Each structure stands twice: as structure tokens, then as C-alpha cells.
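User: Show me a protein chain along with its predicted structure.
Assistant: Here is one chain, sequence first, then C-alpha cells.
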Amino acid sequence: MKPLFLLGPTASGKHDASILVAKAVGAEIISIDSMKVYREMDVGTAKPDAETMAAVPHHLISICDPSEIYSAGRFVTDARAAQADIEGRGKRAFFVGGTSLYYKTYVYGMFQGPSADPALREELNALGPATLHEELKRVDPVSAERIHPNDLKRLIRAVEVFRLTETPISAMQTHFDAPSIDGVTICLRRDKEDLEKRAKDRVRRMVSLGLLDEVKRLHANPAWSKEGRAAIGYREIIAVIEKRNDLRSAEREIVRNTMQFAKRQLQWFRSFNEAHFIDCGPRDSASEIASRILEIAKKSGG
């Protein structure tokens, strides 16, 4: 059986549909999400509840402490182990999420650059994303165009590679031309108005489920990573806790930032020629979307 991959921007309805698909094909879900890996970051990352995970096993959720730094390389290692475990038990691996870098690294191959330099990374981390992005524009404008100015983790790696090798990381990634895994990749998309409404509903639900209290607990831990603090849904609430903003304004900012992030996600997804796109409408139920996913998977030999 070919592994299935379901991509989509934040709030597109991936997870609800994936549960139905997983039940239909006897699959277990491997999360492709750079934030759901962290323990204690539950509400703000929209993790599935205990009942859902009891119905369909999930992997790579809550596997590291919020003080740790998780990477694409670690994701590849963990995802391979999860896939082998699932398929070894006669089940199907079903990858679901929206972290495009993790998907691309897993499916297209891992970039083999220089090993991380802890001392250099500490130095680069202290510079902050704005300074790093300006440096990257000078030494590797191709990567600077690809990497968002606030994506601290990818900025650090790109600048680190150049400083260690004097070669732009973009010049080293030309082997990412075609998938190396034979799977079926499907991507959900929605029009802007529909997605924004869903994003607003998602934020309201998070707040009602205790997002403010979750961020307060995390913020009180000085070891909480900068990556976690910078995540959408968390950095905006930190501003509320520090009395630099009010909750209602923060909610609006989360929606705005989510929509900007969704736009970047879709740009990535469109670059994957193997992806089959499903255009979802506001009246499409999770079961209808799941049926379309299953139809595509069947036609694609999956």
C-alpha cells in the first residue's frame, strides 16, 4: 500500500477529513506539524483530543518538551520510524499536516549540508530574524526570497550553511527535483473568505478552550524555546500577558497572521507537482471531503 499524504493550510479542515479516511482504509496518522510535536502546547496547536486519538492512533504528537528545538532532520528520522512501525503491523501510514518543509524533506530527500555548529547557532539566534534575513539577502538572495523574515529556524540554518561553507544553501538543494517516495499526495484548499471564516472560528474555539491559561503556563517557564514563543497563536497571546495588547485585538492578529501563513503554505503546496488538489467549499462536510480523498487515492493506485 502506498502511503497517503494530506496537506493543506491551517484551518482548511484536514484533520476532520483525515479521521474518516483513516478509519476507512485502516490507517494510522503521522502528523506533519512542527508545533504539535511539543508537549504542553496543546490548545494553540489544535491537537486532537484524547477521544480522537483513541479512535485513530496518531504519531509525532507531544514527543518533545517545549524547551527543545525540533528540526526537519529529526522529523525525517521520527517519521521513518513511525512509518516502519505502522506498516510492520499491517496498517497504512497516513501523513497529515501543513508543515511544507517537513513534507518536502521527507518525500524529496534530506539536504546533506554541514553539521550544526552549536556555538555559531547560539550567535545567530541572538542576532534575531530581521538581522539574519538582511544578511541572507546579501549572501543568498534566492533563499532570502524563499524564507519568511520571521522564520527564525530556517534563517539560522541558511546563514549557518553559508558561513561554514561560503556556499549558498540554495545552490546545495538542487537535488530536490522529484519525489523519492512513491505515495499519493492530496492537498485541500479553500477560497480566502471561507478560510478566513474558519480561521476566526478556530481562534474563538481556542480561546474558549483556555488558550490564555496555556500560554501563561508556558510563558512562566524561562526554558520555553524562542521557536515556541514565536509561533502563531502564542506570540500574540504573550503580548496580552505582558499587557502590550488586549485579548480581542490579539484574536484579530492571530487570524491575520494565520491567513498570511496560509498564503505561504499554498505557495509551497503549488510547487509540489505530484499533489492532487481538492477545492473545498463552505458547505462541504468532512465526510464529503473524505470521499473525494478516497476517490483520488483509489485512482492513483493508493
